[in-house]
Each structure stands twice: as C-alpha cells, then as structure tokens.
Amino acid sequence: MLELGKVQELTVVKRVDFGVYLAPEEDAQEKVLLPEKQVPAGTGIGDRLSVFLYRDSKDRLISTTAVPPLQLSEVAELTVAQTGKLGAFLDWGLERDLFLPFREQTKQVREGERFPVALYVDKTGRLCATMKLYHYLKTDSPYQKDDQVTGYLYEISERFGAFVAVDGKYSALIPPREMYGSLRVGDRVTARVARVHGDGKLDLSVREKAHVQMQTDAQKVMAAIEQGGGVLPFTDKASPETIREAMGMSKNEFKRAVGNLLKEGKIEIGARQIRKL
Questions:
Q1: What would the pLDDT profile of 71-129 be if each residue is shown by its tens digit?
Q2: How far apart are CA 97 and CA 116, in angstroms?
Q3: Burial profile 206-244: b = 16 or more Cβ within 10 angstroms, e = fewer
C-alpha cells in the first residue's frame, strides 16, 4: 500500500524516459513515479528504493529520494518560505513547499520565522502543516522534576494555561497558576519541570523554587522601588490584580519578598506606600 507522507521501501517495476515507477511488494498494480533526476545511477527493474511520498504541484502522488525532516504525524521545526492569501508555505527540503493553512496557525506567522509544526493529511488528501501540536507531541521525555528545559510556546488557553513543545517534541504545559510575566504564542521559554504526570506529560513553571524565587522577587521589588525614586506607590495590602500587573507576581509572593526586605532593614512600609531606607 502506498502511504502518503511516509518513507517507504518500494520496488522498481517499470522504467520510462522521465523516471521509474515504484510499487509496494504486495501490489505491483499500485504504482508511483520517481522522476528521472531522483533516480540513483545504475537503478534497474527489481531494485528496491527508499522514498518519501507526497503530492506535486498538480496534486499527483509522487515520490522522492529526499527525506524531509518530518513524516506523517511527526513534529519538526520548519522555516516560513513565504506567506499568501490562504496561509503560509514552509521550507521542508522538497520541491513543493509545505502548506500551513491560516486555520492551523496559532499566531500570525512571517517569512523567515522558524517554529515546530506537525504533518497531517487534510480533507482533500493533501499534506499540510499545523501549529496545533498537542495531539502530536511525545510523552516520553527524559526530564525529571526540577530539571531546566526549553521549548516553544505554541498555544495559550485561559482555562488550561500555556502549551509548550519542549525541545520541539515533548508535551508540556505551564498551568495558569504558573503563568507569570508576559507569555505569548511564539515565545521560546526556559522553565523548570514542576511535575511529571503519570502519562509522561510535563507541568512547567517559569519561576524557581520558593526559597530561590523569594530572593529573586525581593530583588525585583527593590529595583521597582529604586526606579520609583525610592518609593513604591502601594503596599502588600494592595489587590492581587494591582500587584500582578505591576510586579508580575502573586500577592503571596509579593508579601514574602516585601517581608524579606523588611527583615533585612532595606525598606519601611507606610499606610499606602513602601519606602527605601
């Protein structure tokens, strides 16, 4: 059986001026063309060749000895070759670029950008790319709790959090409670593994462990006070929304940082502001 989007080992069953026809061993009637410029020197009838099957510019099934960086249902990082009215086209090393429809984009992409995509077959039988990676990512990462990882943030959900492709291939999530600072689709993030689920999926945190993070947060608060001329115009009694917007941390984290600075004698807390000593 000829399988679109996959590398297969097929047998040469016919030679023509413009190439050779290949067929699976179990069905010689099901043939696909390998263009002459792709045919290895000395190839003859009965030889077996490893080829990738895709569709040419006229949507005809065709084979190539060039192996793209991903096969059907796999994930790989590709570069945008150009954008068009219906979507973008990605360079994947074949004569025909890979189409990325607008509906499969999780952000507007631009020429020259590079990011992970998965390969699928659309309803018309064409190979296409998608940036919606959740169902294609692996769950057998080598990472353990507290390991540092890097990945591509490919989608954000208000309910579930920020979805990340660690190393471009492993399934990970930054839960809403761990989403601090400015996180956007398309970001390359460095994070700590907060949890490894039983199914192998990772929960990530962009913050350090509590005792380390407290020192970092304290430095951040002190920097904000100094930038304000020695004054921060709110205290740890401010609303969680005010603190998160201004400092990018939760109210509890802010209170711990302020408490640490107060203990060290670096600040004093007034009714409505914090002052540097």
A1: 999 999 999 999 999 999 999 999 899 999 999 999 999 999 999 999 999 999 999 99
A2: 15
A3: bbeeeeebbeebbebbbeebeeeeeebeebbebeeeebb
Measured distance CA(62)–CA(34) in Å, rounded: 6
Best CA proximity match to 131, nearest among 106, 165, 150: 106
3-state helix, strand, coil in the chain (%, to 5): 20, 40, 45
Between CA 179 and CA 100 the distance in angstroms is 28
For the chain, report the end-to-end CA distance as a whole number of angstroms: 77
Residues facing residue 23 across a β-bridge: 11
Which of the residues in the chain have pLDDT under 70? 208-213
Sheet of strand 267-269: strand arrangement: 231-232, 274-276, 267-269
The answer, as to whether pTM is greater than 0.90, is: no
Matching residue, tokens 């945190």: 205
* Amino acid identity at 22: L
